[in-house]
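Example 9 (inverse folding). The structure is encoded as follows.
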């Protein structure tokens, strides 16, 4: 069996469900590992996200040398869903879990307090604090600002299970220039925009992701045509216009774009892979790179809860020649659900390389909560596949 080793001087985790790492008993013979000494790499199952199938979003992670054999589709199909095991995880103080039965004013007050801690350039561009919001299934009326080192997660089996009316937005803290709007993410929820003239504003510049989301309206990738430079959207559906604004470069994958509108800016590179409604390539007038279908992809695993409040990690199957989002309507993507009772939930200031490796040796998966993990070195004896998605790093 192959042996996997991951070394980092510092692991900066900005995401809630940041690393899904696999113990050897889960894998079987599913292909050789890919390894990386990059601080953007992550350990993970062959049925984890990012993956042997090579997520097309290379810009989100600096990991990934080597190559890997694709897992056998029949062996993937033979894996059944777990039953719930154990109580809900303790995600620690930097994960705020919200329920739609809570007063909206109470939730708004809490997220505003976190926003005040995380906003502001340059004071928080390299700050040490990280936060995640978990929204249980339901309907919310909120204005959610996504600042440095923040992730906003819906806990539904489908994006529409969590719907936020108002905004889930990224805007510059000073004026309209978004060139330093880094290190933030949103996934697995729907938003009905009622702020900013009923437009979802996602003004970002690299190190960001909008993934597995449903924008029930229009979205602008810059704020009032202030400068912006880079971002990533995947596995998402846009119901109305998506306006590129001033984005110099941007990458969308497996997304239903509805109507793409060029912001009439001198784009350097806009890439579209496996999208529905992608614009036509028109070199050299417009710097569009368009690939009709995504050759090989496994979407990122996501955390969700069932009707009884049990937590699971859903691991989508590997897909070939795919186009558009993996989900639609009430259809949950094919894959496998793993109970969080089989995860070691890592916490900054508590866990070390020793405790994490001990958990792996006991057959546990790993789930990292937001924080910084100094001097991480993970060795998985017998781990026979790895995933490189799921970690943000600023080291």
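The amino acid assigned to each position is listed next.
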């Amino acid at each position: 069996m192959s042996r996997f080793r991951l070394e980092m001087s510092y692991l900066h985790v900005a995401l809630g469900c940041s690393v899904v790492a696999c113990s050897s008993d889960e894998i079987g013979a599913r292909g050789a590992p890919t390894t990386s000494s990059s601080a953007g790499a992550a350990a993970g199952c062959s049925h984890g996200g990012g993956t042997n199938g090579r997520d097309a979003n290379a810009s989100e992670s600096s990991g990934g040398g080597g190559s890997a054999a694709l897992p056998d589709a029949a062996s993937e199909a033979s894996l059944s869903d777990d039953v719930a095991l154990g109580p809900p995880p303790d995600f620690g103080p930097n994960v705020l879990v919200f329920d739609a039965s809570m007063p909206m004013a109470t939730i708004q007050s809490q997220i505003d307090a976190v926003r005040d801690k995380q906003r502001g350039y340059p004071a928080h561009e390299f700050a040490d604090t990280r936060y995640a919001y978990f929204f249980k299934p339901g309907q919310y009326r909120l204005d959610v600002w996504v600042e440095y080192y923040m992730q906003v997660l819906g806990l539904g089996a489908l994006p529409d299970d969590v719907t936020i009316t108002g905004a889930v937005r990224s805007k510059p803290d000073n004026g309209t220039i978004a060139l330093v709007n880094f290190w933030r993410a949103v996934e697995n929820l729907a938003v009905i925009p009622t702020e900013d003239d009923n437009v979802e504003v996602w003004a970002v510049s690299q190190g960001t992701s909008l993934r597995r989301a449903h924008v029930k309206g229009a979205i602008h990738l810059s704020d009032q045509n202030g400068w912006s430079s880079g971002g990533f959207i995947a596995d998402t559906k846009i119901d109305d216009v998506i306006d590129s604004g001033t984005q110099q470069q941007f990458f969308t994958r497996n997304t239903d774009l509805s109507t793409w509108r060029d912001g009439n800016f001198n784009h350097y590179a806009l890439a579209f892979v496996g999208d529905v409604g992608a614009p036509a390539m028109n070199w050299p007038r417009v710097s569009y790179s368009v690939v009709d279908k995504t050759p090989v992809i496994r979407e990122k695993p996501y955390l969700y809860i069932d009707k009884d409040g049990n937590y699971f990690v859903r691991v989508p199957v590997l897909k070939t020649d795919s186009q558009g989002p993996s989900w639609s309507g009430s259809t949950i993507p094919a894959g496998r659900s793993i109970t969080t009772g089989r995860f070691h939930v890592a916490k900054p200031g508590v866990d070390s390389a020793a405790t994490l490796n001990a958990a792996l040796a006991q057959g546990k998966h790993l789930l990292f909560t937001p924080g910084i993990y100094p001097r991480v070195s993970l060795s998985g004896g017998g781990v026979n596949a790895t995933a490189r998605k799921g970690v943000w790093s600023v080291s």
